[in-house]
């Protein structure tokens, strides 16, 4: 048989069954869907561990009714309060009722003012969300461009100063930074407490369709003076909380940009005569931002933790402010509900960040 005939037979399609490589993968999930399903499946046990840990820690401290009302009520009144709150039942029964309430969206009722914890989320959670968004804007505005500047001037004076500054703002307690800002700007008449002036708060609370997000309510009210007033009150707490995360973003952008600048495709771009400024902006900078998005989930958890101190320092009446008030009042049922709520928010936020990272960086899906 000639070589031409052998080649001709090799080109003919095989009459046997198709191999596994040629079989179309019908019914299989694509990598992105598989990754998201795995992350969604992992978030359920994580949530269960979080809420169980909160329940156990709140029971370790002792009787919440006795801690909150001890010395002010008679023993029979305390026993009545315990029966109303269901704390006289077996611990396992309380645990399952606690889990069932969370599944129904019921995070309990406070002891001191008889408020539903879910109502605290609606009324005060919007304030914490608003402050967190402001702080993220400050963190990106400070950390990303300064991290890029530090990478371009590696081991030179700007880089050294920026790295030291990032360490300082990250290590400094957020309440200490807040107090420094208040001392520095209050003498100049800059507002340093509350979410807005008293007149603005009263006007917005009486407006129809209140969203509890003060900036949005001021915009819907159609008053530029109110919008300016709300933004002025937000500057100092946003800077105090945003610098905490801005220092992290600065170091992340710097380190990842330096690593990206040593990549082969960046070297090839330089070899083609592309200017250094364009290499950084077009080729390296976008890739260096992927780790920033990855870490954002953890930083949002840090922002929520820092918001407790920031809201207390600036009297910003969000979830953190209410949590500190209930801690002072020793209302541990309120603390349990709010901490559980914050833990669930952090877990859901972490999952959403994973979704964003998977959409931005295809390498994560495999």
Written overview of the protein:
This protein is 74% helix and 0% strand. Helix 12 (264-271) packs antiparallel against helix 13. It has helices at residues 3-11, 31-60, 64-69, 75-85, 91-103, 117-152, 157-171, 174-185, 198-206, 214-221, 224-261, 264-271, 276-288, 290-314, 319-328, 332-360. The protein starts with a helix and ends in a 6-residue tail after the last helix. It is mainly alpha-helical. It is globular. It has 16 helices and no strands.
How does the SSE layout of this entry go?
Layout: H1 3-11, H2 31-60, H3 64-69, H4 75-85, H5 91-103, H6 117-152, H7 157-171, H8 174-185, H9 198-206, H10 214-221, H11 224-261, H12 264-271, H13 276-288, H14 290-314, H15 319-328, H16 332-360
Helix pairs in contact: 2-16, 6-7, 6-11, 6-14, 7-11, 8-11, 8-14, 10-11, 11-13, 11-14, 12-13, 14-15, 14-16, 15-16
Oligomeric state of this protein: single chain
Q: What structural class should be given to the helix and strand makeup?
A: mainly alpha
Number of helices: 16
Instruction: Note the gap between the termini.
Output: 47 Å
Q: What order do the SSEs take from the amino end to the carboxyl end, as H and E? A: HHHHHHHHHHHHHHHH
Residues in helix, %: over 70%
Shape: globular
The overall pLDDT, averaged over residues, is 78
Proportion of residues in extended strands? under 5%
- Report Rg: 28 Å
Low-confidence stretches: 1-24
Number of strands: 0
What about the largest sheet? none
């Amino acid at each position: 048989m000639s070589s031409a005939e052998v080649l001709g037979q090799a080109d003919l399609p095989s009459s046997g069954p198709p191999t596994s490589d040629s079989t179309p993968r019908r019914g299989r999930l694509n990598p992105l869907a598989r990754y998201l399903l795995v992350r969604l499946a992992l978030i359920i046990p994580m949530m269960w561990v979080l809420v169980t840990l909160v329940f156990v820690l709140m029971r370790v401290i002792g009787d919440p009714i006795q801690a909150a009302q001890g010395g002010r009520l008679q023993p029979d009144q305390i026993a009545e309060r315990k029966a109303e709150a269901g704390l006289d039942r077996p611990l396992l029964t309380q645990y399952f009722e606690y889990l069932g309430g969370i599944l129904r969206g019921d995070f309990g009722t406070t002891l001191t003012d008889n408020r539903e914890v879910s109502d605290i989320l609606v009324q005060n959670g919007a304030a914490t969300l608003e402050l967190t968004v402001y702080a993220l804007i400050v963190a990106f505005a400070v950390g990303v461009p300064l991290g890029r500047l530090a990478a371009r001037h590696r081991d030179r004076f700007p880089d050294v100063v920026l790295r030291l500054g990032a360490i300082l703002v990250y290590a400094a307690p957020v309440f200490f930074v807040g107090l420094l800002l208040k001392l520095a700007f209050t003498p100049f008449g800059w507002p340093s407490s509350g979410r807005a002036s008293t007149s603005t708060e009263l006007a917005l609370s009486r407006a129809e369709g209140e969203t509890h997000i003060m900036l949005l309510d001021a915009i819907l009210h159609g008053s530029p003076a109110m919008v300016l007033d709300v933004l002025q009150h937000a500057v100092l707490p946003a800077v105090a909380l945003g610098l905490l995360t801005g220092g992290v973003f600065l170091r992340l952008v710097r380190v990842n940009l330096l690593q990206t600048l040593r990549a082969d495709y960046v070297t090839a771009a330089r070899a083609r005569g592309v200017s250094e400024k364009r290499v950084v902006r077009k080729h390296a900078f976008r890739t260096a931002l992927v780790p920033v998005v990855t870490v954002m989930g953890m930083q949002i958890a840090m922002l929520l933790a820092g918001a407790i101190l920031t809201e207390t320092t600036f009297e910003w009446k969000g979830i953190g402010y209410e949590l500190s008030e209930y801690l002072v009042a020793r209302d541990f049922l309120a603390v349990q509900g709010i901490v559980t709520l914050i833990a669930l928010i952090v877990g859901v936020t972490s999952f959403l960040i994973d979704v964003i990272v998977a959409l931005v960086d295809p390498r994560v899906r495999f």
